[in-house]
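User: My advisor, Dr. K., asked me to get a structural model of this assembly before our group meeting. I'm new to this, so sorry if the format is off. These are the inputs:
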Amino acid sequence: MKVKLASSYGFCFGVKRAIKIAESYENSSTMGPLIHNQNEINRLKNDYNVGLYNELGDVKENDTVIIRTHGIPKNDLKELKQKDAKVINATCPFVTTPQQIVKKMSQEQYSILIFGDEEHPEVKGVKSYATDDVHVVQQLSDLNTIHFKYDKIATVAQTTKKKEIYLDIVNHLILKNKEVRVFNTICDATFENQDAARELSKEVDIMIVIGGKNSSNTKQLHSICLENCANSYLIENKNELDNNWFTNHEICGITAGASTPDWIIQEVVDEIQKI
Amino acid sequence: MKVKLASSYGFCFGVKRAIKIAESYENSSTMGPLIHNQNEINRLKNDYNVGLYNELGDVKENDTVIIRTHGIPKNDLKELKQKDAKVINATCPFVTTPQQIVKKMSQEQYSILIFGDEEHPEVKGVKSYATDDVHVVQQLSDLNTIHFKYDKIATVAQTTKKKEIYLDIVNHLILKNKEVRVFNTICDATFENQDAARELSKEVDIMIVIGGKNSSNTKQLHSICLENCANSYLIENKNELDNNWFTNHEICGITAGASTPDWIIQEVVDEIQKI
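Assistant: The format is fine. Below is the predicted structure of the whole assembly, which you can bring to the meeting.
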């Protein structure tokens, strides 16, 4: 069976980059879980002895500590650097950007609005770079209780948030303030995987979508593929493949959810190529 | 008959201010029509000998020249100042603001987008302050043909434009660019007159709306008043008042369209108070 991979699938750029960094520092530890994927964290532990610290206090002198993709709060980073630990920064560049924007806009006396989940490590990190008035909102109605210090507002968004809600929020601010400086920090990775799956599913005889059956972005990919290719199947790993699906077909397209490690995808590809 | 004026009516702040300035410079001339109201321009000519220049070339040494509310292009202002004429600036401060924003944002290497009518004197003036990439759009679809030099866009709007369309345009830009710096330069004057008319029409027995019968903003005021007060009448001047309207009523509310001079309003007020 011929296999064709979607032009974009699986882990995003920032996650892939962080894994490569971790693989190149054997016996290091990450500060907080490197990425939101337990399978992959286990693999890094088993294959590269990459450990995990959950508390700054646990870090010892001469440790090599990798900063997670979501970044960490500014003061935690400062403390880490003072510990004589070797600090390797695997913060996604798309997360470093809003951190630096918030820092600069604070210095220029803008009130800062972050659209995101206050409890998410990425947002905690981004927020920590504000040196003045800063607020976090999850939805439009959260604005009702906010009083901004300045009439100049700078806004950033958590990288994985929905653009439509971000626009609703900034529109409200534009109507009420002299200046709203809108930074589009939402990452296109999720949409890129969806667009690529849509395209590929039009070209192939059968589509295999690899990812967690409870993962909302994987289910979304599956439903997009079904629109164009009735022979679309969602599997978690190679063990779920059924040879009968492939009878009388020539080309199999493959995509994967944003939490699916490359090695799981590779195992599936290898298996299908044998059919 | 008791008379109560709306808390906001008639000329906006910038127009009232320009008229006061013109009245205080007898025998001066304005560069272009001071405001968009021929009645008032005639009155300034008759009562204060305030003339009108349409061409820079007509200005003579020692002339006192008043800059119109909409402002003039930067180079025209420069030329005027070099002519040894006394230049009095009656540009509305709400128009000076976008001029200065465009100047500053150009210097900071933002592409500039002006939402407005390219042929309107205000927009011509605002646009002239750009020293780099600048574009004018009237509607969302105009964006299709625009190529911005930078991925940082600063936007301003003509003061009298509709906010809804401005938001549509900036939303489109936010989705496509790293940073959109949105300056809300739309003036609330029109909406303030409408809100004030709405409130007043709920309190009074009869409402008189003074303004041109072809003026869209005056008709809008009349229709708002009719929602709350069935005895609402639109008149152009005191001669159209009908005593029968006021029979058995006690309090008369008054509002006026944005092009209605104060003296026409005053004549109506004086007439009604006699009833």
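One thing worth pointing out at the meeting: Chain B has three domains: 2-8+189-274, 13-91, 94-182.

User: Perfect, thanks a lot.
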